[in-house]
## 1
Amino acid sequence: MPEAAVHIGSGKVRELYALDDERLLLVASDRVSTFDVILPTPIPDKGRVLTGLSSFWFARTAHIVPNHLLALREDGRSLECRRLEMLPVEVVVRGYLSGSAWRDYRETGSVCGHVLPAGLRESERLPAPTVTPATKAESGHDENIDGSTAARLVGADRWAEVEDVALELYAFAAAHAERRGIILADTKFELGLDTAGTLVLADEALTPDSSRFWPADGYAPGGPQPSYDKQYVRDYCESLGWDKTAPGPEVPDEVVAGTRARYVEAFELLTELAFADYIADPQVVLG
Ligand code: PZK
């Protein structure tokens, strides 16, 4: 009889369990957060869409960097993964100027120590993809740091390796997404070290919760872009005049259905698989 999984952590929309000393179980829920608040209404299959996409990318990027995926469970929402020593830095790669990078640029002309050209507009494509590290702040929000601070936290040689790997992952995924009509504006990677000291890609990778996906059709720099997946639910919440503090509003069936359809559409465009085929056999995403 296998030991019971021991709950060791909760993210906003995910749970983490220890299976044994070497293995963790990462379970993605159907919860959705908007404006940093978890809504009381789940989006059916969202956890499976994110787990399927993450697994798809792990299978297709193993030539760039090894990853923590050991097994994708039959429920389609749970990943068995290798337990690593996580690096204390989140690694964001940005191809476009959005979110905290846009705020930092407007205030200082720089993002994480990278001086950018003057006159860039919100959501504009950057001259080149840029690594912008952050630390997991105790108080919820991540704090942007510069590369020299990241290098102090993990070591200069390791940081150089992390930057190279992150840029290669971004270039691979952004090119793939672009061919399917999706702009990968930015994405956050989390990496760790295995017992041999090898750098390993962990957490979820290249999902709509760890990335900004924008429809290429209608891309218009000069303001914020609609999110591929969450825009329906965001627009609905804004239409209520909700003050964006917890608890979030309940979401009506048609908004749930519209949001679910967008998650499924992103899955199908990026994986070139029918979502029904994933439900029937999650292993299809591993190619
Ligand atoms: C690890 N988190 C984030 C927190 C979640 C996820 N392979 C790994 N080895 C060791 N630790 C982690 C991982 C991964 N991935 C990930 N925290 C630790 C996290 C809460 C809930 F689902």
## 2
Amino acid sequence: MAEHTNGNGRRPTVQYGEETVERGAGGETHQVADGDQPVLTTRQGTPIVDDQNTLTAGERGPALLEDFHFREKIFHFDHERIPERVVHARGFGAHGYFENYESLADVTRADLFQRPGEQTPVFVRFSTVAGSKGSPDLARDVRGFATKFYTREGNWDLVGNNIPVFFIQDAMKFPDLIHAAKEEPDRGFPQAQTAHDNFWDFVSLMPESTHMLLWAMSDRAIPRSFRFMEGFGVHTFRLVNEAGRSTFVKFHWKPVLGLQSVMWNEAVKINGADPDFHRRDLWDAITRGDFPEWELGVQLFDEEFADEFPFDVLDATKLIPEEDVPVRRVGRLVLNRVVDNFFAETEQVAFCTQHVVPGIDFTNDPLLQGRNFSYLDTQLKRLGSPNFTDLPINAPKCPFAHFQQDGHMAARNPVGRVNYEPNSWEDGSGPREAPGVGFESFPEELAGAKGRVRPELFADHYSQAKQFYDSQEPIEQKHIADAFTFELSKVDRPAIRERVVANLRNVDEELAGTIADGLGLELPEATEPARPRVDGLAPSPALSILGNGPEEFRGRQVGILVCDGADNVVLDELRDALTEVGSQVEIVAPVIGGVLTSSGSVLGADQKIGGGPSVLYDAVVLLLCDEEADTFADDPAVRDFVSDAFQHCKMIGYTAAAMPVLESTGVARAMDAGVVELEAGEVGRFVQQCAQLRYWDRELDTVSVG
Ligand code: HDE
């Protein structure tokens, strides 16, 4: 047998007599068992005769050490897990592309932004921050929004979040922040939540976190799904054009379906009903061809703007309001392919902030500078080898060539004699530098004494927190106050609660007062701010979720509760009308086998009542009939379905026969424009109403049912 290799990265082939076989592809078979099934082998390719029984000495005797198949199988299984990410452990990824609307050659030489209409392949991973891999999706948390662009001039990783600011200003404090946010070390809980002493102790002592805390306590931290949230690069980056001119940039992702979040009570229940709610939503949307889409926006500004801006553009606890620097939409991101293998892609993908391409550069934001060290470092620990960049999900899709070699799990092994540069070999002398083409750092002039200091403007901790709060609609402000009150009520030590409220007095007296009342706390003295607040900042409407509602129902899901005899005509009309506006329908029935409709046909169910609570839907319909209405009205799962939908301000459609259910839940007493009767030929009004997404008056008027 002769083995032939080649140096072009192509797979070696093996010659077995006359036959040439590709080697090591994993999956190709050399023998066939019954039918067309491949033969099960060991990792060495040895065919296995029995995969059910360990080799023993005698029928009831001890297992034998020589059972290499058993030992290899268990050994590999024992090592299946790799360390989960130290933060952002729970995530979900998908493939897609980025497409330019226009050329950005005026501001950047980055190859991916040169040609209108050009597509660049991408992989995106969404995540929560604090919880471990198995934590629920609807934790109150920041969401990661990390994008790997496989450009023609190398991979660019834009590793962002769904909130445009961060808790801290200097990377030195990151381990402290994460220690405080994650489960407490002595007891190992609470999991995936910040509602505990350590977190609030830390942030109350770090007033720079105040702006981010307002975001984290807002509904931004409980998005309806990844498809309905924004993304932000957070830091100020640089774009550099062909002439070497630098322009500052902040990156934004704008969801085409608009912004939407859930309510806290809903989030808690979703976590119980479907802890995978967000990942399932993304998977379902992509697999049904309803590809999620975002627009890439850039805020571009120069040194002069940066100098005049009242805050430091290198401070990651500050944003630049869109009203001051408009977001220019330059392209779109489409996610159109789910992963083939979760581990290989979502788990092994390694984002690094220092993965930039010519034309995109860093600024001196101290948080970004720290990240540039951390990401590369963490990948080595997590993936176990400096060759993590060769894993298919991480490898560039453009040509690459270097003299780095060997190391654990080296799979791309160069052939030939030359492995250094410069060299004087004529043939196969390897890659060379590319002056004028390769990545060049922007030659920023630097001066100043070495020291551990923060720039002066970083000391402003409250101005933009106030601006964020003032930019929210009343219902959003209420949710912020509720969230602070909820979280602080889980904090044992009163001094911590007091310190948080004392800080918040610098943001908004009314907010601080409402939270103090909610805690049964006497209003403490306000903390002395390190720098006086800049007052009179105009509210920024772009910061509100509700102020930017999509006013459409596309991409949303309706749960239709049915019983035997459910009206076919109304159902068909409803389905058609909802499909027309681009939303989905799920049937919730007493048994998963479904029901017999009024026309006598079988209607299969997607969920059994109780397994499909209304928190899983954006709106609900009660398509009931007289015979079963009373039984439904007595069923606790049905009552929860209806009263939760009402409390969560969702649109409810019902047929007249559902009245007993509306009465037993108290909804009948509180009917409003969000509760719509459905009659044949009349479903349009309900579908139109759904586009409002929620009927918030119910919460503002504190109408309660149940
Ligand atoms: Fe991260 N962060 N981070 N981070 N981060 C990680 O890298 C770190 C920060 C963000 O889906 C880690 O591969 C430091 C800001 C996302 O794989 C680690 C600091 C923002 C993801 C790390 C920050 C982020 C991470 C853990 C303070 C928004 C998940 C595992 C200076 C702009 C990426 C890993 C994925 C992951 C370090 C702060 C976003 C340890 C030191 C600010 C989306 O390297």
## 3
Amino acid sequence: MADATAELTALEARALEELKACADESALRAWSSRYLGEKGQLKLAFGRMKEIPPAEKKAFGQEFNRVKTSLESAYEQAVAADKERKLLASLEANPLDVTLPGRPVPAGGLHVATKVMREIYAIFADMGFQVFRSREVEDDETNFELLNMPPHHPARDMWDTFHTTTPGVLLRTHTSPGQIHVMRQFAPNPVRAVLPGMCYRHEAVSTRSEIQFEQVEGLAIGPDVTMADLKGTITAFARRLFGADRQVRIRSSYFPFTEPSIEVDIDWPKDDPNADRLTKGTGWLEIMGAGMVHPTVLKNGGYDPDKVSGFAFGMGPQRITMLKYAIDDIRQFWKNDLRFLGQF
Ligand code: FA5
């Protein structure tokens, strides 16, 4: 029996000697199958277990395990050393300049519309307005009726509407129906909120008008809110966004849900060659409609018009962005042309 154990030890010495002579990967693989493989010498040696008397089986088994572990770990080390050798050789053959700058990864960025929206929120947040999200799919009642426009009211002609196949359900034409949602949530308490979001109109698309565009509605309700508060808020907003020297023009107007109603224009840079086309020769571009909330709308929202008053406005951030960056075509916003988007 001592023979069988001694043979194992001799096998180990022979195998390690041969391993040292393996110069490349294929020699290493051949060595592995010769010694460690299914039909390798180690397996063969193990086959002799049955010849060994029971009292010596344990010592043989222990020696077998030791030799097996020793050969396996020597093989792993030899493979790792071979890899290292190859890597060094390849680095020497093709030197790598680790000081070269890396390839630039194109960085994404926020859409210019998102950036301007965030600027608008920040300005109104400073004035105590909270952001209130409201739905884009509305019912006729909230988009029109509760805003003082019963069916067949001629003012509905101002908002050419996309209707869904469900009667009375439509894509909102403006953010004003959100006023009703805000009021019903906060009445009878005072509230100051801005309501951003997409609006949809069946319009002729042009350089200034899209069928899908954003609006930011504003609403402030409380005791003694006046037209002076509205004018002050709008002027403070315009000066923060466009700079102290930009001109703000306020004209009287008409909306069924405000009384009195106004429209607000901003002057377009006179040295811009597109000024005439965009402002239809006037030098002014309209950015919002506004007014004092109509008593009927206050009532529909759950307020008592004898106790509180309020102002509301609705602006188009795309038009505002056009003014801020002298963009000459509103269709650029949703085209996803990187040459346009990359400029902001
Ligand atoms: C309204 O939508 C009213 N709801 C605004 C309002 C709110 C008045 C609260 C009173 C009180 P108007 O249709 O004028 O009003 O649209 C408001 C702004 O949205 C416009 O000044 C313009 O900046 C923008 N806008 C309107 N139509 C388009 C369009 N097709 N494409 C891009 N922007 C538009």
## 4
Amino acid sequence: MTAEAVKVLRAVGERFGRTFELEHLPWSADYYLESGITIPPNGYDMLRQFDAVFIGALGDPRVPDNRHARDILLGTRFELDLYVNYRPVKLLDERLCPLKGRTPADVNFVVFRENTEGLYVGIGGRFKAGTEDEVAIQEEVNTFKGVHRITRHAFEFAKARQLTKVCMADKSNAMTQGHALWQRVFRELSPLYPEIEATHYYIDALAMYMVLDPAQFQVIVTNNLFGDIITDLGATFQGGLGMAASGNLHPGRTSMFEPVHGSAPGFAGTNVANPIGAISSAALMLETLGLEPEAAAIEAAVLQSVRENQVTQDIGGKLGTKESGDYIAAQISAARV
Ligand code: IPM
Ligand code: MN
């Protein structure tokens, strides 16, 4: 999938007369298994030198504890302080949506997932591990700074795009300490955006309303774990995990772009996986770098491939991964979009 995204980037560069200088870093399960290195000691500093980072899916059964994924993906999110996980949920064609009768007009919102704290900080421990008395504790960290900056980002995004609704989701009815902070911040920030309707759902209700009435959502903001879960749900609305794109952002700094999906190691090398999630993540990357026409060209080419059903099997086409990437790149090169 990553190779197809790179192919499409090159096509869009040529079309718009730009050269993207791409440097390939080998960090992966293979590299880790060969060298014992997940990411080198100066790795995060290396990443900061780039305008943006594009990353393929991680996860490999040969690394059961997923250490390389943790260091490379979660490590980069934390070390580069990429506090915004930007995950658009956009249906391109009615036929891809598993929800009865829903059209692209009904499924078009973005999720902002807090990306640097919550349950992902890895604080906790196990006591008497492996015995019947085992105790496992995993702490959820919510800071004023962390909750405030992601919530503000959601409102600012809505404002910049003239959207009128922001929905915050937490579980403050059960998580009465940590999520009281989400409530406080949301209460304090909403009045600063009088033109935006600020609503709140508990996360369980949000999951239900996403399915029942996705059209009510424009911008959703939530914590790290809940955002992880609901964006897989959101991906299914778009035609499955193969379709969903994401950006890990720190506005104004080096950001990292990746598909929402994992690696599906069983499909490795079989040329069946859908590259659209990766390709659309490259579009998000260009959009974030201020190259809107280039991003729009990629999005239009992806849409065209879906409309023409020149896509992979998971979304009803007959193409392989490579051919799907070829088709999208060709639309861009031939300036058909
Ligand atoms: C994602 C993934 C990661 C996450 C995994 C691989 C740790 O599911 O980017 O959504 O949970 O953040
Ligand atoms: Mn996930």
